[in-house]
Amino acid sequence: MKDYMAPMEGITNHVYRSAYHRYYHPMDKYFTPFLSAKPDKKLSFKEICEVSPETNEGLHVVPQILANNADDFINTARILRDKYGHKEINLNLGCPSGTVTAKGKGAGFLAFPLKLDRFLEKIYEGLPDMDISIKTRVGFDEEEEWDALFSIYEKYPVKELIIHPRIRQDFYKNQPRLQAYQKAYEKRTLPLCYNGDLFTREDYVQISGQFPDTECYMYGRGLITDPGLVSQIREGSHPDKDRLSAFHEEVYIRYQKLLSGEKNVLFRMKELWSYMGLSFTNYEKYLKKIRKAQHFKEYQAAVSSLFAEQELIFGSKDDTSGENAAGENTSVKNIPGENTWN
After folding, report:
1. Where is this region: Disordered (predicted)?
2. pLDDT tens-digit profile of 301-311?
């Protein structure tokens, strides 16, 4: 059984991935937040940190590329191969963000199946020595699009097809469309990976029981909310609060070394707490203090109080509403999505 970490801009970067790998059940693969392919692509410092072996030591990292132009995709892939040694890349066909889909990229590319087919033909022909996996939704406007899309994917040597069984218009609402995943599962003409709403061990047990031959799972919002989730699934016990505290401390210290100024560090940590805070009992007032913190001293006091005074829920999926670092509803079912989730 294989476990993957989903990409999330601003959260699952090289700092987070390395700390997670040290303190929790190691993932088989870690997918980077997407790199936008452009003509004459040159990687920024931030992108280099995401894909460089030096900043991802000991991790199997798969760079994810966002593109709808085959030449741009191929050029970016070759940079990742030749300069950074990557043999596998991932195509983002899942991002539902309006700014992305308006350009016909991410899940927006699914609305143009003929163009997508030509694109896939060109990239697989142009990169015969690289493995290309695909992260996809099951349609743009309607689930009925899925049969035609899957037939396109079947034509190519897809390394793995990571399926988030929602259409773009779902964003992260509604239930996963498991009938769509079932169709791909029954055919099994491609290696499949399931992704979507794995918040608790019970969610994993339900999905793995329904699709027992699925050998790969990708975890996103549920894992960021509860970093001990996969440890509980694979090892049978949930890491304790001390482990989470040590994990948090490493992320916090590494951001202080990487970023300049308290404001930038605290912005990153507040993003993380908007998810991770939901793993604690009675978290609301603590997250409010974290959100309002302007300096390290205030932030550290709020975090210390949370760890000292509250307990972990161990990934319980309840409907208790709170506020995240932006003052938004953060019940587990209302957690914002990937790339923001890719």
Report:
1. 318-342
2. 999 999 999 99
Compute the mean pLDDT over every residue in the chain, rounded to the nearest whole number. 93
**CB distance 149 to 139 below 8 Å:** yes
- Other Cβ atoms within 10 Å of 326 Cβ, number: 11
**Which residues make up the CATH 3.20.20.70 domain(s) of the chain?**
32-196
| Helical residues (DSSP H) of the chain, grouped into ranges | 14-23, 45-51, 70-84, 98-101, 113-126, 146-153, 178-187, 201-210, 221-225, 229-235, 241-258, 262-276, 284-292, 296-309
Q: What percent of the chain has pLDDT over 70?
A: 92
Give residue 100's identity as a one-letter amino acid code.
Answer: V
Q: What is the pLDDT of residue 314?
A: 78
Burial profile 5-44: b = 16 or more Cβ within 10 angstroms, e = fewer: bbbbbebbbbbbbbbbbebbbbbebbbbbbbebeeebebe
Tens digits of residue pLDDT in 251-265: 999 999 999 999 999
Who has greater pLDDT, 136 or 336?
136
Report the C-alpha gap between 18 and 12 in whole angstroms.
9
pLDDT of residue 201: 96
Read off the pLDDT of residues 32-57 as tens digits, 9 standing for 90 and up: 999 999 998 999 999 999 999 999 99
Q: 218 — alpha (psi -120 to 50), left (phi > 0) or beta? A: beta
Of 202, 195, 194, 246, the residue nearest 8 (C-alpha): 195
Could you give the strand order of the β-sheet that contains 64-66, starting from the edge strand earlier in sequence?
Answer: 35-36, 64-66, 88-93, 131-136, 161-163, 192-195, 216-219, 2-5, 29-31, 61-62
Altogether, the residues listed in the chain come to a count of: 342
Q: What is the DSSP string of 165-211?
A: -S-GGGTT-S---HHHHHHHHHH--S-EEEES---SHHHHHHHHHHS
**Domain over 32-196 is classified CATH 3.20.20.70:** yes
Partner residues linked to 133 by β-bridges: 90
pTM, two decimal places: 0.92
